[in-house]
Hints:
By secondary structure, the chain is an alpha/beta fold.
Amino acid sequence: MLLPFYHNKFIEAGVDEVGRGCFAGPVYAAAVILPKTFYHPLLNDSKELTKEERNLLRPIIEEECWSFAVSSVSNVEIDRINILQASFKAMHLALNKLESAPELLLVDGNRFKPYKKMPHKCIVKGDGTYASIAAASVLAKTYRDEYMENLHTKYEMYLWNKNKGYGTREHRAAIDVHGLCRYHRKSFNIWPDFENTEDEVILEN
């Protein structure tokens, strides 16, 4: 069972990101402030939920939370500043958009770039420990999946509607055949000769 809060005294925002390990697309992050009494039996780390469960939870979280925000950082920016810094930036952008100011940040993982002067607590596997982080993981995951499914309509050969940009066998095979497109992360070195193929793929789409 998820813990409802880390410290009863403070207004807490759970923060999580999705898409760090993907070959293509942006990294997404969400920040969520839940009432300390919030409970839903399905809520868990988004990776442990089905697509249907995540989509069911998303409007419930958005309706019952005190505040939420979702932001993303593009693959172009990821290539420019690296994926770790891009993940931090996406989290900061989400925090900037919160309508209510938290007093403590609960961040999934073991590293975080301090946000302003706000205290934070990094929690490994926090999305399976605290409700607010789990809620953030659900929002980040559903928003990013939706984005990649929309991209799939223009780049069907990569099967982003199924793999969401992760380096599955099918995605790798499609890259071998079609090369990289403008949404792939070139800094990940997933296609050693992409300079010779990128323009062709972009022009076709």
